[in-house]
Each structure stands twice: as structure tokens, then as C-alpha cells.
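Q: Sequence in, structure out?
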Amino acid sequence: MIRVEINGAGGRMGRMLVRLVCEDAELELAAALERADHPLHGADAAPGARVKFGTELPDGVDVMIDFATPQSTMERLANCVERNIAMAIGTTGFDSDQVGRLRAASEKIPLLLAPNMSVGVNVVFEIAAEIARRLGNDYDIEIIEAHHNQKGDAPSGTALRIAESIAGALGVDLSEHAVYGRRGRVGKRPRGEIGIHAVRAGDIVGDHTVIFATQGERIELRHQAHSRENFARGALRAARFLAGKPAGFYSMKDVLGAND
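A: Exactly. Output:
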């Protein structure tokens, strides 16, 4: 049995993770972590689970699944390193310094960082890179992402990962080629731009479209998430993968390449 604690357990993703962990025969819910001022603090995390939403990390935990905020993740990082708890992190919006701290921690614990734990989206990362590699520099590339109006960061971590995959396939530095939206008299589109655009509206779970266009044709690669459950099930798959692994900085590519 793999003992799992969930950080950000009171959020929409967190509550779904709590439910799915409780339904999984291979996993045991050890803790449902939330800040002390959260409305659910002290309430039962799930019927029959004997776990309440709280701030304390219990002993004997194997993996933390983290869908919180960058600040909360950083606060929990030291605890996980100290207690040798693996981390499957789906939180987005980290700055470069925070990513550096996560990488440093991965020298001591198994740590997986994935902006999107959907199996389908992680296949899209690979396909987008392969399309870019085959088409080369003759196609304009635009990435459009849409999410619900409560999402705090933009563009999405998934859109950025797609852009990074494409830039890597083309052998270019994304920081020198990315354009985040356009406004005003921007002139003709320069060769080599990678456009990234964010939409925030209603309760959109997550849409990502990659456009490769040239004179006379275009290719569109699109992923639509119909519910958060596919992200949550990917996170559980990541947790099972990390349990018992040596220290290292892992990705969903490692998870999908592993034998179930």
C-alpha cells in the first residue's frame, strides 16, 4: 500500500484527488493538507477516510501529490526532503529560482514536475515537437490555450511546455522567439516567432491548440480536457511510479515510459 498525502487538498483538483485515492486499492490517503484559514480546515476529507483537512504532515508517507500554489509547494519542499517523501508536483507558475530549488531537492528525493499530468497532453508534447522537427522553419507556429476564469497564471504551464518542446525540436532559444499575444501596429510577422496566447473564460477545464501554418495549408493539433479527472488519474499514476524510486528529477515522459 502506498501512503499518499495531497497538498492543496481543498481545491477542485485536490478534492478529486482525495476521492480517487480513497477509491484506489493500491493507495491510502495519509493526509489532506490545506492552509489553516481554509474553509474546509478541520472537516472530514472523505467519508470513511478518517482523515481531516489540516496542516500537519503525518509520519510514514511515501508520496506527496501537490496541486497548490508555488508558495505552498516551496513551504512543503523542505518537509518532504527532511522526511524522504517523494513529490509529484502538478502546480504551475514557478519562477526560475523556484524551479532551481526543486531541481536541487531532486538530488535527495524522487521529484516529478509536470505542468499537466494528463496522459493525452504529454503525448501532445511529443507530437508537437515531432511536427515542428519535420516541418522546419517554413511554418508559422501559434499556441492558443484556454482555461477557466479562476486560473491565476498565464500562459498555462502546459502551453509553455508545448512551446519549449517545439523550440527544442527547432534548436532555438524560446526566450528569444516567444511572443506573448500581440497589440498595436506590430507589423509583418517575423520568421521564427512562436506565438503564445491565453484565454480565460467561464469554467473551461483546459484547451490547447497548436497551429502550424504556411502558404496554402495549415495543421492544427488540439487537446481538450472535458474534466479534471484525467489530470487526477495521471497524478495517481505518477505517484505509483515515484514510490520506491531513487532520487532524481522525473517527468511524465518517465512515467509513460515505465511498465505499469
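The chain has a mean pLDDT of 94.
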